[in-house]
Amino acid sequence: MDLKDFILAMLSSLILVVCVLVGVAFLTLLERKVLGYIQLRKGPNKVGYMGVPQPFSDAIKLFTKEQTYPLMANFNIYYMAPVFNLFISLLLWLCTPLLTILFNYQFGILYFLCCSSLGVYCVMMAGWASNSNYSMLGGMRSVAQTISYEVSLSLFLLSFLYLIYSLNIMDFMKFQENIWFIFMCFPLSLALFVSMLAETNRTPFDFAEGESELVSGFNVEYSSGGFALIFLAEYSSILFMSMFCIILFLGCDVFNWVFYIKLVFMSFIWIWVRGTLPRYRYDKLMYMCWKSYLPLSLNYLLFYFGLMAWTFSLLI
């Protein structure tokens, strides 16, 4: 790679990150509008035309508020945890299969697993460095939940990888030209979607931010900029996971504008789940992961491995 290619890649990555952040801003607006209509009220509608500039006024408000920090907090880790959290969630986007193919990874799925598993450390650091019992409890809950569901998520993902026999994300597009994987493995797709909900700490699995018992969980001591960065990281992950669902089982046709309509629809489902379902009980969440989803994922893994072996035997 010469200097021009490097500069072009960096500029393209910067444009991608800016577009993701703008997308996150309007995802928050979509969420507030949809939740408003689900609860038979209007969402934000005062700022500008129908409340469209609301996310930007929220961002200005958050970043201009006074920054406070607990006196006994571990200052450096407390400040850096939200920054790393957003940085890692934006790093995920570099494996996006775009029309221009910004970075074409042969091992894109491995890159996704590595980056997504690093997000646990940021939550753990934020919860511990705040030096508050509430944030520590929220951090421990979140870490236990995320690590647990990473296991089943990885195993569900392996089942899809056996179908394409590759780690390249672009190969999902080739194999779904005639039929989407959701029709071939519908229960697997639903289980993967639920695992992704748990992985991103979203309702009904938002135990890291259980307002009723943890006063906002691991980010309870954060205000202004730190809170905004954690918020942006969470919504960036939601947007990425929505896109990843489309890549895996809804026809990864990145050369078609329908891909982005499907992305909006999946993001809407994330919000719809939040407006519909109450919070799950924590022991039931762990029970579902280890006693339900783990055996299910292992069974599906064996099934698709057998299917792949049988297909190869026919080809030979």
TrEMBL record:
Keyword Acyltransferase: no
GO terms of molecular function: NADH dehydrogenase (ubiquinone) activity; NADH dehydrogenase activity
InterPro entries on file: NADH_UbQ_OxRdtase_su1/FPO, NADH_UbQ_OxRdtase_su1_CS
Protein's membrane topology: Multi-pass membrane protein
Alphabetical GO biological process terms: aerobic respiration
Keyword Membrane: yes
Gene Ontology CC, one term: mitochondrial inner membrane
Record field: transmembrane: 7-30, 77-102, 109-129, 149-167, 179-198, 227-250, 257-273, 293-315
Enzyme class: translocase
EC number: 7.1.1.2
Catalytic activity line of the entry: a ubiquinone + NADH + 5 H(+)(in) = a ubiquinol + NAD(+) + 4 H(+)(out)
Keywords from the UniProt entry: Membrane, Mitochondrion, Mitochondrion inner membrane, NAD, Transmembrane, Transmembrane helix, Transport, Ubiquinone
Function noted in UniProt: Core subunit of the mitochondrial membrane respiratory chain NADH dehydrogenase (Complex I) that is believed to belong to the minimal assembly required for catalysis. Complex I functions in the transfer of electrons from NADH to the respiratory chain. The immediate electron acceptor for the enzyme is believed to be ubiquinone.
Xref: PANTHER family: NADH DEHYDROGENASE SUBUNIT 1, NADH-UBIQUINONE OXIDOREDUCTASE CHAIN 1
Protein's UniProt name: NADH-ubiquinone oxidoreductase chain 1
Source organism per UniProt: Serica sp. NS-2020
